[in-house]
UniProtKB/TrEMBL annotation, chain A:
EC number in record: 2.5.1.58, 2.5.1.59
Domain of life from the UniProt record: Eukaryota
The keyword Transferase belongs to this UniProt entry's keyword annotation: yes
InterPro entries for this protein: Prenyl_trans_a
The protein, known as: Protein farnesyltransferase/geranylgeranyltransferase type-1 subunit alpha
Naturally occurring in which organism (per UniProt): Imshaugia aleurites
Molecular function GO terms recorded: CAAX-protein geranylgeranyltransferase activity; protein farnesyltransferase activity
Automatic annotation (TrEMBL), chain B:
Annotated GO MF terms: metal ion binding; Rab geranylgeranyltransferase activity
Name of protein: Geranylgeranyl transferase type-2 subunit beta
Cofactor: Zn(2+)
Pfam families: Prenyltrans
Family: Belongs to the protein prenyltransferase subunit beta family.
Species this chain originates from: Imshaugia aleurites
Domain Prenyltransferase alpha-alpha toroid intervals: 24-323
Any single Gene Ontology cellular-component annotation: Rab-protein geranylgeranyltransferase complex
Entry keywords, A to Z: Metal-binding, Prenyltransferase, Repeat, Transferase, Zinc
Catalytic activity: geranylgeranyl diphosphate + L-cysteinyl-[protein] = S-geranylgeranyl-L-cysteinyl-[protein] + diphosphate
Length: 337, 324
């Protein structure tokens, strides 16, 4: 008795039950009935390489129960292309289950599922989406709205970001991305994913992905100087709203690296947030870190060492070994515990 | 190996944290041993697609705890071999398609129980074919590795491929310089590495990139000070490590972050005592198992990475682990 065994649509098929590897196996499988039945029909359909509407429906059913089962996704994608299905319709279905999955994760997975299982489900949907999308010539107008909904749930979801970058490359969406990134940073200036994406749309577009040239410190003559200046100004403004925020400080170092001019030009900017003479008023440990490098660039070893000492002793003591290492590079002795 | 989580929760029993918490070795061994008796739970089949990984995690945890015998060796080998395909690749469990991740897990498990030659003796395909299956997933164009014939690439697959091939002594089957170039393309402006060129730095991906470079003998390409600075910055005031800036701490990053630091000789840049305190607070000291953070359900994934983290920082009572 079951959904498939009772259906006339599937009566020509002999389900193939799970072969769990012999008596008392290490990982014998205990399925609930509904899932187990659906899986036995899936095995039967796959065994004869069936490509049909009913098999598509079957994969949909199994994905509903277990979105982290990769075999079923592969089979489904294969059928979609063979049967020349409407891919926009597939996307629509994918949107629906993706959003539902985020919203009702506890319904899909009544117990807490290991993080890896959850991540796997995300990864498989993203991959399926990418496979489908790469067969569509122009980006469907609904796509950005869908991504906005996904980000509304979790704006740091690594899979969604990775998909978004793929999409930008695939459809060459470089110009429309920047305003979007700015709106994200406007609502949360600490969103490191958005800072990374900013870097991607501005600098990675100038990069030949087959050549190694993205690393910080490689001065890049292909990026116009006015863009470099604009990025420096933008980042300074972002730091002024929240000085103790590592993302823009990292970004600033990256941009200065692209410029190839060192950090010294931003010395007075950084000193606003960390004055070595006023130890109690330091507003940013990242400014201290930045200034330590500025002073070292200027051969002011003692000042540089003083900034590192403040970090080791007071502003970031959990990493005192790191700061002491930086002092040792200057030939200075360790700061005690 | 079941990936069912719970029943216990990490450190939930007492609100108050004693100054010195003990590692409950015997409890963790029992916890892992009982995982496979829980096949009547819904979550058991929902995580079937991870089963082979689960076996690897459980097995590794038992080795770290000094009880490698707690999982029956022959049954383990039988289960691994029953997931193999003629192509040489392995699925997550019998009846699942072959995929890079499970093939890597299979090789790692067989390597751990010293049974790689069983592939030649009674596998559906021998060592040579397994190595070839992995090697064929390398892209000639970019040097990266796909997870399966569908071509999704991820630095996880690249690391897994090199790790398994080095266990099989078959690194010569792949183009190492091309793979190395691909990893360099994943390096970011902040000193970290992402899942693909341009993707945000992430501690898990850093582990795979640095691990792959270590196997390739090209750690000279890493800016150790900058990467070490980024990695050590992941430690939060409670001692736990996070995977990215502005994200919460999680026990599994104890492994990804700390082992990456160890590979570049910068492990002492984090506060090891604080980290071990954090991990110990995540264990269920009554029923065994470790959770992602205090108060959450324990599971085998966080148990193994918590133990591996503790072992790496030299916590007494555990077998020493190799960071790669
Ligand atoms: Zn975790």
């Amino acid at each position: 008795m079951g959904k498939y065994s009772d259906s006339t649509e599937w009566e020509d098929v002999d389900p193939i039950p799970q072969d769990d590897g012999g008596p008392n196996p290490l990982a014998a499988i205990a399925y609930t009935e509904e899932y187990s039945e659906a899986m036995s029909y899936l095995r039967a359909a796959m065994a004869k390489d069936e490509k049909s509407d009913r098999a598509l429906g079957l994969t949909e059913d199994i994905i509903r129960m277990n979105p982290a089962h990769y075999t079923v996704w592969l089979y489904r994608a294969d059928m979609l292309f063979t049967l020349q299905k409407d891919l926009l319709q597939e996307l629509e279905w994918l949107n629906k289950i993706s959003l539902k999955h985020i919203k009702n994760f506890q319904i899909w997975y009544p117990y807490h599922v290991p993080q890896a299982g959850k991540a796997e489900a995300y990864g498989l949907r993203r991959h399926h989406r990418q496979v489908v999308m790469s067969h569509i010539p122009t980006i469907p107008p609904t796509e950005t709205a869908f991504l906005a909904l996904m980000f509304a749930k979790d704006v740091k979801n690594y899979h969604v970001w990775s998909y978004r970058q793929w999409l930008v490359r695939q459809f060459s969406l470089w110009d429309s991305e920047l305003p979007y990134v700015e709106s994200l940073l406007q609502s949360d200036v600490r969103n490191n994913s958005a800072w990374n994406h900013r870097w991607f749309v501005i600098f990675a577009r100038h990069m030949d992905p087959t050549k190694h040239s993205i690393k910080n410190g490689d001065a890049d003559s292909e990026v116009p100087p006015e863009i470099i200046e604009r990025e420096i100004e933008y980042t300074k403004a972002a730091i002024s709203t929240a000085p103790q925020n590592q993302s823009p400080w990292n970004y600033l170092r990256g941009v200065l690296g692209k410029k190839g001019m060192g950090l010294v030009e931003l010395k007075s900017f950084a000193e606003q947030y960390a004055d070595l003479e006023k130890e109690d008023e330091v507003r940013s440990s990242h400014a201290l870190d930045f200034l330590a490098d500025v002073y070292a660039e200027e051969e002011q070893k003692e000042r540089s060492g003083r900034a590192l000492e403040l970090l080791a002793r007071r502003y970031d003591p959990i990493r005192k070994n790191y700061w002491n290492y930086r002092r040792s590079l200057l030939g200075l002795k360790q700061v005690g515990a | 190996m079941s990936l069912v989580s719970g029943p216990g929760r990490g450190g939930a029993s007492t609100g108050h944290v004693p100054d010195e918490i003990k590692l409950v070795v015997e409890k963790h061994v029992e916890y892992i041993q009982t995982l496979d008796t829980r096949q009547d739970e819904l979550e058991y089949w929902l995580t079937e697609h991870l089963r082979l990984n689960g076996v690897y995690w459980g097995l590794t945890a038992l080795h770290l705890l000094g009880h490698p015998e707690a999982l029956p060796r022959l049954a383990t080998i039988d289960f691994v071999l029953s997931s193999q395909h003629e192509s040489g690749g392995f699925g997550a469990a019998p009846g699942h398609d072959a995929h890079m991740l499970y093939t890597v897990s299979a090789v790692q498990i067989l390597g751990t129980v010293d049974a790689l030659e069983e592939l030649d003796r009674r596998g559906k395909a021998g060592r040579e074919k397994v190595g070839q299956y992995i090697a064929d997933l390398q892209s000639q164009e970019t040097g990266s590795f796909a997870g399966d014939e569908w071509g999704e690439t991820d630095t996880r697959f690249l690391y897994g491929a090199l790790n398994a091939l080095s266990l099989l002594h078959m690194l010569h089957l792949v183009d190492i310089p091309k793979a190395v170039t691909y990893i360099q393309n994943c390096a970011n402006f902040d000193g970290g590495y992402g899942v693909s060129p341009g993707a945000e730095s992430h501690a898990g991906q850093i582990f795979t990139c640095v691990g792959a470079l270590a196997i390739a003998g090209r750690l000279d390409l890493v800016d150790r000070d900058r990467l070490g600075g980024w990695l050590s910055e992941r430690q939060l005031p409670n001692g736990g490590l996070s995977g990215r800036p502005e994200k919460l701490e999680d026990v599994c990053y104890s492994w990804w972050v700390a082992s990456s630091l160890a590979m570049i000789d910068r492990l002492h840049w984090i506060d090891r005592d604080k980290l071990s305190q954090f991990i110990l607070q995540c264990q269920d000291s009554e029923k065994g198992g470790i959770a992602d953070r205090p108060g959450d359900m324990v599971d085998v994934f966080h148990t193994v990475f918590g133990l591996a983290g503790l072992s790496l920082i030299g916590f007494p009572g555990l077998v020493a682990v190799d960071p790669i």
